[in-house]
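Lab notebook, bench 4. The sequencing result for the construct came back, and we need a structural model before the next group meeting so we can plan mutations. Quick request posted to the team channel:

Model the 3D structure of this chain.
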Amino acid sequence: MKGNVELINLTKHYGNSPAVSALNLTIEAGQYCCLLGPSGCGKSTTLRMIAGHESVTSGTVRLSGNEVTQLSPRQRGTAMMFQNYALFPHMTCMENVAYGLKVAGVSKTERTQAAKDMLALVDMLEHQHKLPAHLSGGQQQRIALARALICKPDVILLDEPLSALDPFLRIQMRKELKRIQRQLGLTFIHVTHSQEEAFALADIAVVMKDGVIEQSGNPKSIFEKPASAFVADFIGGHNVINANDTHPDFPPSFSVRADHIHITAPTHTPSAETISMPAEIVDVEFQAQFYFVEADIGNGQRCMCFIPEHKLDPLLVSSGQRVDLNWHKNQMNTFTITH
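Done. Here's the predicted structure in token form:
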């Protein structure tokens, strides 16, 4: 199907150092996919191999049902939006957006009309005669996106496109990206190190570590059941607990969400369906809608809890107090991947 992306045993080595190892992934046409992970995990290398800007050591890239592993970027039906936007400083917004059609030999009349349509799509038509230096970061991003879209690619590739923006503008622009992606029905593949950004945008999120896929799926399923301690720790909102010999009735390693924990006095008798763990309160911070509570659970481990204001007992939950941390048995997440 047009816009479908398949990566089959995709591998990239730099000398003897693996950057991506036997990666297998299918992205359906029209999906918004986010490649997510820390610096050096291989996500940008994967994106560049899809684009054709990076050679493949072994494996296959298939786009819209066709193998494109050895094709040049222009032959693939993709368009890439770079982190620094890479706009031509001497060209107006109109000229930057129309550039791809000019290279393709499209007449000036046709490419001017197409550029106006793209500028309207990204709400930048009134800035068509400005140079990039006269635009804000968010406006430059819109021009870069319009330029990527004008040649009607099947797949749009975005390499950390929001990282240079301030937090408020980042939220605004990610909404714009999702709106445009849905309106055009294109496949978007977006590299980011922000789990918040990935979860807000993605139909499918792919969490990478050391050149391999640690977990993929819709963001809700990943957040509710992280497959490994790495995923639980990286996406945030989870406590990764190593029980070891201190709690022999628990799995050796598991996670529990910070918002699933409630705090009681040690004298409280838990129900049969409740897991209880002794702890000492280390710190309490007010965070508007909830309190962030940090507790020492022994063996050098800290546990974070998000407690709604109306459920917090200030006499019980204060630094130095001995308490029990409690959660329902079915809220203990055991890992399917252990390293």
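DSSP finds eight helices and 18 strands in the chain.
Will bring this to the meeting.
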